[in-house]
Structure to design on (336 residues):
């Protein structure tokens, strides 16, 4: 596939190092078939897979600026700004989580040290995670997609039960699972290696000290309270919804049969899928495309026959001809 070769650079090699399926699978077959189809087109693959560190830094600055602004308004304004601040912070925590996802795929920068420095210090640690642990787990998800024993993001056996499998019941079942709630709320502070926990605590101790220097003891402590309140409520609620959007209700066995895109309204996309995270099928077919090119890639790929014929696109979240909450329950009988 000579046209694709320049794009399959060092990042693709790093993906291969982490993805270790023992045998050829339908997941791999879908990816190879899609790339063969791409090689027969004139699509600008190198442009789609190019890292743009400046764009990521801009978005990262915007996310943190909104978080700081929400905290400032909450600690200086009337009491009713506090719940609004929790919503804003929780949404931007989800946005940071999506940037962490790109860092794990080496998509922030072609320079490994720069990529991992940004991912580790500015995204992973404040998000209570280890970049390297996240990367290892997430690459297993790609390699073992849909395997009910080895895919770490396989939720069907957790959310589907005999009876009561409406979309709201499925969502609540996952939302109220203690393990998922604690995982979203405290990340690697629970169950992570001691060294990781110490790094996270050290980062937050330094951040609290900086906040204390530039504000007051109460305001600096309020930032911590808002951060964890947001993670345990809004961030967890959005993350649960997003996880269900990616694969739930689809048929394990391949990328096309088990991954979907959610192309909803712009406002709801910003809330549930900040930084284009709803183009999950595109991501699984070509994990070397950064988040800021996923929507463009989707539009290009609509001209590729196998994508046009086999791709699943939900055109809304709760309404429209094919909303994603209906897709959750389309094939419930396959899982129970």
């Amino acid at each position: 596939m000579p046209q694709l070769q320049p794009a399959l650079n060092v990042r693709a090699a790093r993906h291969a190092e982490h993805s270790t399926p023992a045998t050829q699978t339908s997941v791999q077959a879908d990816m190879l078939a899609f790339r063969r189809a791409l090689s027969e087109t004139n699509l600008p693959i190198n442009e789609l897979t190019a890292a743009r560190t400046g764009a990521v830094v801009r978005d990262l600055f915007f996310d943190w600026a909104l978080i700081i602004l929400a905290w400032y308004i909450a600690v200086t304004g009337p009491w009713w700004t506090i719940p609004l601040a929790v919503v804003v912070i929780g949404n931007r925590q989800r946005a940071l989580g999506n940037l962490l996802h790109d860092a794990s795929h080496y998509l922030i920068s072609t320079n490994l040290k720069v990529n991992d420095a940004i991912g580790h210090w500015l995204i992973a640690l404040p998000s209570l995670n280890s970049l390297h642990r996240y990367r290892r787990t997430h690459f297993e998800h790609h390699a073992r997609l849909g395997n009910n024993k080895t895919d770490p993001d396989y939720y069907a056996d957790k959310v589907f039960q005999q009876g009561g499998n409406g979309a709201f019941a499925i969502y609540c079942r996952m939302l109220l699972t203690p393990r998922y709630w604690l995982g979203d709320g405290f990340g690697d502070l629970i169950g992570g290696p001691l060294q990781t926990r110490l790094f996270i605590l050290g980062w937050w101790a330094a951040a609290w000290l900086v906040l204390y220097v530039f504000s007051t003891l109460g305001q600096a402590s309020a930032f911590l309270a808002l951060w964890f309140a947001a993670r345990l409520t809004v961030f967890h609620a959005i993350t649960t919804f997003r996880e269900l959007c990616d694969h739930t209700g689809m048929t394990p066995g391949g990328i096309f049969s088990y991954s979907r895109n959610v192309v909803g309204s712009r406002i709801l996309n910003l809330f549930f899928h900040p930084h284009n995270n709803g183009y999950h099928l595109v991501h699984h077919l070509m994990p070397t495309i950064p988040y800021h090119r996923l929507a463009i890639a989707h539009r290009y790929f609509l001209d590729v026959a196998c994508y046009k014929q086999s791709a699943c696109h939900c055109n809304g979240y709760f309404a429209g001809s094919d909303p994603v909450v209906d897709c959750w329950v389309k094939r419930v009988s396959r899982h129970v």
